[in-house]
Amino acid sequence: MPRFDRVDLDTPLKGLLGGTAAQLLEKELNIRTVGELLRHYPRRYVDRGRLTDIAGFEIGEHVTVVAQVVRAEERRMKTRAGSLLQVVVRDEKGATLNCTFFHPRKVAPFVRPGVRAMFSGKVGVFRNQLQLTHPTFELIDEEDEIRPFVSVYPATAGITSQQIWRCVRQVLDMIDLDDVADPLPEELRRREGLAGLGRALRRIHLPDTEADQHAARARLVWDEAMGVQLALALRREATAQRPAPACPPRPDGIAAAFDAALPFELTEGQIQVGQEIAADLAREHPMNRLVQGDVGAGKTIVALRAMLQVVDAGKQAVLLAPTEVLAAQHARSLRTMLGPLGQAGELGAAENATKIALLTGSLGAKAKREALLDAQSGAAGIVVGTHALIEDRVKFADLGLVVVDEQHRFGVEQRDALRSRGELAPHMLVMTATPIPRTVAMTVYGDLAVSALHGLPGGRSPISTTVVPLAEKPAWFDRVWARVREEVEAGHQAYVVCPRVGEFAAEEDEPDEPLEDDETEERRRPPLAVLDVGPKLAEGPLQGLRLGILHGKLPPDEKDAVMRAFERGELDVLVATTVIEVGVDVPNATAMVILDADRFGLSQLHQLRGRVGRGSAPGVCLLITDMPAGTTARERLDAVASTTDGFELARLDLELRREGDVLGSVQSGRRSGLRLLSLLHHEEIIVKAQQYAMDLVAQDPGLRQHPRLRALVAETIGDEERAAYLDKV
Ligand code: ADP
Ligand code: MG
């Protein structure tokens, strides 16, 4: 084995560990260096002092026990093909227990008589004896015995926690941890009372006490928080330095004319956010602003006013929507709002009028050519469209502003795709109705300045939400449809939402979030589908009403026709999937029935119900479910019914979601650099880290004097991201 004079975090594992171990770590976990291995933290610890005795087991309990294998025999199964490995183990006090394993060939090489291991599983009964069925196990080395905690590592099918542990032990013996270079500036560590990196790394792998574990994590989580915040600060810095077209407001332009003709007063929030945007647009560096406003807060007008300011400066603006339905609707409502101001080239247009072009993937060849021409020639001051706009490489005469509506459907990459065309970076305005918890705003959207659009326009009516629990109150089902009829008879319209399209499109339309109650899940019927529910309602409880059907699999022109008919009041009830989730605005719709409501996510339900009560009549939202009381699914629905506060719901949603999904979009590399940072639990650290990061980048643009911090950023975010904005600065 080659000798290393000095092992540090960058030392490759190859040559340091045995060849196979190094290979395995690389292949299974993409770990190549000492640093990468030591950053692979234990997932949890098993406290030896808390291991259970076999004698004290109770049926149904989840247990972990250290025991020695006394006997291991393979048996054929009587009722099925295949065999089982039946094992008897004995704990330190001499009590024995049966364990059954399903894949003898995989397990038998490890679980042999004489070995000691830690077995975990749920206690069951078989032939009057307690047993663990297919428990997980960790073999125990003799040297482990003396340590108070056993570290359990995130493992894969190809490498066990035990194997990882051995490698970590070896490496810890070779490296001088007091000598490890610490990326966090000393001043920061002192102020925050953080342990040095070397010490924290040792403690997280080999804690002597629980306090050790906490102290180690408290330090190491800072590395992640700083990595993310520095990445974002660098990103903000890089974009802020690009030149952008300055679009100062004009007192005599189309924007002013529009304001003067507004049929209603702007809300305080609209005025204030409007001022922030107007000031941003006037600058010579690109605006990057996120406007957060609950459903119905009136974001469209905020966007339109921004676009008009840009048009007044002789530039173009583009409005991107997540779906064709929404893009078409936006184009229509912008045209309506603008009136003669949006009819350039037409009879009766206002003097300084502009033109709105709609550009979606499904346009006919001729319409598409015209729209493309209008964008390219500059004839269209405002271009509305979907992703197709990005993908088809549309040329603009002079793009000044990109507005992205309903951001939660848009990725960072898509934002970048637009931003990077042309020499001047266009201004960017992102609008979302999804209330974003502070920590998420500071990480996932941390490259954007955030404006909150508070308050709803006057004249909006409250929505009351009721859970209809069919498990306990089956009779309520009929009343749901009676209620829909009442709304229609009063001259209003209703939505009926199903989780699935049905028939040909089954798989793709599964709801975003899995059920919590997975045990009941297996036996459940498939979610209700628009194509089944529609006809049944038409022939049954909603007979005689004018029903329309809308889902993502319809041809675009049909989708558009249905949506228009509903908008014009030619349909009473729209049976739809979540295509109506974002942005659809029909003020006369007052009722929404959501079938299989438990199949949707919290934020999704909140978005959905925002489609009703948009006019002056109060809205009602009925959440239909057959999940029984006491299940998590029901608790979630009750939460939606209990509050209309989007922020509170977002917080609950975050609690229920896997955080990795949220943070996933901040990093695109394969190996995730975020293991400890939690958006839920580390708000304070994230806030502080952002401040430190901003100060550091302000003092040292591009972090040229801080190579270790640059390395930390690279470690935290993926390779692609690094290429995108670390190497550029
Ligand atoms: P969202 O923020 O959900 O996108 P919209 O922009 O679609 O909301 O606005 C919802 C409805 O409120 C629209 O019909 C819009 O015309 C109306 N609206 C917007 N601002 C005001 C206002 N200041 N006063 C009255 N109605 C308004
Ligand atoms: Mg909207």
TrEMBL record:
Q: Where is the Helicase ATP-binding domain?
A: 280-453
Molecular functions per Gene Ontology: 3'-5' DNA helicase activity; ATP binding; ATP hydrolysis activity; DNA binding
In residue numbers, the region (Disordered) covers 506-526
Q: Where are the transmembrane segments?
A: none
Q: Which CDD domains match?
A: DEXHc_RecG (cd17992), RecG_wedge_OBF (cd04488)
Which InterPro entries does the record cross-reference, listed alphabetically? ATP-dep_DNA_helicase_RecG, DEAD/DEAH_box_helicase_dom, Helicase_ATP-bd, Helicase_C-like, NA-bd_OB-fold, P-loop_NTPase, RecG/Mfd, RecG_wedge
> Catalyses which reaction?
Couples ATP hydrolysis with the unwinding of duplex DNA by translocating in the 3'-5' direction; ATP + H2O = ADP + phosphate + H(+)
Q: What is its EC number?
A: 5.6.2.4
Q: According to the lineage, what is the superkingdom?
A: Bacteria
The Helicase C-terminal domain, residue ranges = 476-655
Q: Which GO terms describe its biological process?
A: DNA recombination; DNA repair
Does the UniProt entry include the keyword Magnesium? no
| Top-tier EC class | isomerase
What SMART domains does the database record attribute to this sequence?
DEXDc (SM00487), HELICc (SM00490)
Q: Name the Pfam families for this protein.
A: DEAD (PF00270), Helicase_C (PF00271), RecG_wedge (PF17191)
Residue spans with biased composition (Acidic residues)? 506-520
Q: Which UniProt keywords apply?
A: ATP-binding, DNA damage, DNA recombination, DNA repair, DNA-binding, Helicase, Hydrolase, Isomerase, Nucleotide-binding
* Family recorded in the similarity comment: Belongs to the helicase family. RecG subfamily.
* Primary role: Plays a critical role in recombination and DNA repair. Helps process Holliday junction intermediates to mature products by catalyzing branch migration. Has replication fork regression activity, unwinds stalled or blocked replication forks to make a HJ that can be resolved. Has a DNA unwinding activity characteristic of a DNA helicase with 3'-5' polarity.
UniProt name for this protein: ATP-dependent DNA helicase RecG
Its source organism is: Pseudonocardia thermophila
